[in-house]
Specification:
By secondary structure, the chain is an alpha+beta fold. Helix content is 34%, strand content 19%. The chain has a 4-stranded mixed sheet with strand order 8-7-6-9. Strands 1-2 form a two-stranded antiparallel sheet. Strand 3 and strand 4 form a beta hairpin.
Length: 232
Amino acid sequence: MCPGGEVAAAEAGPLDGHMSHPADTKHEVAITMAKLKEITAKQRDGLLRTLKARFEAHAHRHVGLEWATVQARFESNRAKLWSLNELEQSGGEPDVVGIIKTTGECIFADCSAQSPKGRRNVCYDREALAARKEHKPRSSAVDMATAMGAALLTVDEYRGLQELGQFDTTTSSWVQTPAKIRKLGGALFCDRRYDTVFVYHNGAESYYAARGFRARSESSWTSVADEPRMAA
């Protein structure tokens, strides 16, 4: 599944007197989904130009890193390119904000000045979306991030991002919420006001025109244990 589209398996039918094997059908579906998570050569070139220009314009976000090194790390990773393109197309303006020292992998996160425009008016997660009986939003933050091969920033990651600039000065963004809070029906979001980063709570079913979510590309990580702070 990718944002705005559905993947349907081709109906299995007789072939030379035999039905297609279920395993073959699953394999075909997997190939179809993999192809959907690729971008064209034209999209790739355009994305790389955009990322390079942003990288060079905001050198303070990644002191000591050279674009050639960054590009070499991910340009051959089709899933990574697709995910970054999804973040870009939804208004996230992803940029390199750190590096995983143990693997050398670059950390990309949304660096748009305000919460990404293409991801606003969404509740927190699928459970919240299902619980809302009327006036449902189009989707949820967690579902959208997952569909883009990304993950919501944690509170610590959000604070780390704010050390690299001033973000969400007129908007707010959902962030990963501890299970204890979510179990009780709440969810966390953050913003920046009065030159200070604030963490708030709200009902997970709520959604607002000025609230979206910030994410980082999941393929930046090799394991949860390797996740560093944004400003590392």
